[in-house]
Structure formats: C-alpha cells, structure tokens
Amino acid sequence: MNKKYLYQVFFFFFLIITLLGCEKKQEDDSCLSFNKAPVTKIEGSNSALVNQEIILTVSFGCYNGCGQFGSFDEVISGNATTITVNTKYEGCVCTQDAPIRQASYKFKKSQAGTFDLKFLQAENTYLIHTITVQ
After folding, report:
1. Considering all CA atoms of the chain, what is the largest pairwise distance in Å, rounded to the nearest integer?
2. Is the pTM of this model over 0.85?
3. Which of 3, 86, 127, 131 is the most exposed place for a label (fewest CB within 10 A)?
C-alpha cells in the first residue's frame, strides 16, 4: 500500500471523527431548579380602600447568586391568605453569596374588612402583614 494513500485514509477518518465530535449538544435542565424562599421583610401600607390596589415590597432570601424571583403561590382561607415565594435558580456556575431579593406583591379587595397576609418564612413559621380595607 502506498504511503500517500495511507495518509489520505488517515486524514479522512480524522476529519470524520473531528466533525462528529463537534456536534452541538442540546440544552439540558440540570442547571434549572425551583425552591421555596424564606421571606425576611414586608414593606407597604397597612390600609386600603375598597377596590384600591396596593403594592407590597416582599424581601426574600436566595441560597446563591443564581436565585431570582419565580412566582407567588397563594392559598386563601376566609380573610387570611398564605403566600409562598418561589425562587428560580438558573445557571450551573453561581456565586456563593446568599442575596436578599425583592418582588412586588399586589393586593386588592372588593369588600371591607381586615385581611391577614401570611408570608412563609420557614416550615410553619410566617411573617404576617395585616391590611385593613375600608
């Protein structure tokens, strides 16, 4: 067998292996997670008028720098609403700080009364913000 032919065959196989090895990989969800966040502080008005929307600033902790606000989960029982802050952690490489983030919670009622907003801090521990609607 000719050396030139042997080199061409080797080059051809090397080229095929190199091109197949550079296949683009699909994004995986291994660097995406969701978690409940402990509420640390609530700021905002304690009174409102019927059908008036007030906005509360809710501060919550994240476990690392990739943590951001995800959503609020609400469970309403009479005049009490239990609220859980869900965080979204996106990214495989995160700073190891534990930042406090903020989100806006909107409150509006069509009837007068006293309403308790119970924000989850830890298992069975809540930070309660009472709003009187007139």
Report:
1. 97
2. no
3. 3
